[in-house]
Structure formats: structure tokens, C-alpha cells
Amino acid sequence: MHYILIMKQINSQHQKLDLKSVTVSNTNLYDYVKYSDDGTGYYEGKNGIEYGNIYAGDWGYKINEKIADVPTLNVYGKTENGEFLKYGSFDFSSGSIVASSENGASINGNNLVFFLMVL
Predict the structure, then answer these.
(1) Are 85 and 7 in contact (CB under 8 A)?
(2) Distance of alpha carbon 83 from alpha carbon 69, whole angstroms
(3) pTM summary value
(4) In the sheet that 111-118 helps form, which strands lie side by side, from edge to edge?
């Protein structure tokens, strides 16, 4: 499973939005598990995802601290002709963030650097 970040077109009364980079620094990955002890956390409540007490035997979300379990994050941008173009990705399988670029983008640390002008 992959997460996809899509840059959307934004209209703002003759102003331009220049999006130049995407930075990934922290990730939060949650596993849906059966709690063995009482605790607090996120769970499926009457109004969607809620935060509060979770009792032993109930199901809820716990943070998965293994960065290698985070799926690859692919980054796409919308071109002037309306097509989506992949600019790069952030891979976590090694246990740290590894950024890669394509289609004219570049890497600077954990920054995927590109130039996207949205009218």
C-alpha cells in the first residue's frame, strides 16, 4: 500500500502559488490492535475516530515505532496540461527516510525540491 500526496490546483484571484519542495521529517504509523492492558489512545467511537480510555480486551490504535513499517510515500504534481507527474518518493524500508527524485526534481536532505506553479 502506498500513500500518495497530490498537489491540487488552487485558484486565488490572479495570485500564483509557487510550491517548491516537500519535506518529510516525522511519521506516525498506527496499528489497530487489541489492548492487553488498560490505556489511552485512539479508537473507533460513535463519532468516528476518538481519543480516550481504552480498556483491556478492546480494540484501538497504538503507535508503531518501527519506521521500516511505514509505506513508501510517492509525491506527484499536476502539470500545466493537467497530467499528474511523479516527482519522487520517500522510502522508509531501511529504517530511515531515503528520498529519491525524478522528472527534474532534486534532493536536499529530506527535502524533495521541485518547482510547481499553480495558476
Answers:
(1) no
(2) 30
(3) 0.65
(4) 17-23, 111-118, 106-108
CA distances from 40 to 48, 54, 55, 56, 61 (A): 16, 5, 8, 11, 10
**Contacts for 6 with CB less than 8 Å, ≥ 6 apart:** 76, 78, 84
Q: Provide the pairing of β-strand 111-118 with 106-108.
A: antiparallel
Residue 69 per-residue DSSP state: G
106 burial type by CB count under 10 A (0-12 exposed, 13-18 middle, 19+ buried) = middle
- Nearest CA to 9 out of 105, 119, 84 is that of 119
**Per-residue model confidence as pLDDT tens digits over 38-47:** 999 999 999 8
pLDDT tens, position by position, 75-109? 888 777 888 889 899 998 998 888 999 988 888 88
